[in-house]
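Same chain as my last thread, 75 residues:
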Amino acid sequence: MNKIKEIVQSYARMVNPTEEQKKVAEIRLATCVECPEFATNQVGIHYCKKCGCATKAKVFSPKGMQACPLDKWLI
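reply #2:
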């Protein structure tokens, strides 16, 4: 799956998630917040320092667990 397609699909899921997608995103976000690569930029957007993705959308990635560049997601 190419990166642009993954980003678009992640944002689409973020805007109108199913209940299952919300639960998965919450679990993934909890993992991200504990990670040393989790950061916040000067305008308050949370992102991953490893891949550069905005965390609020990244946690909705259709790519699955392998979307985390550090393989920390368990779901």
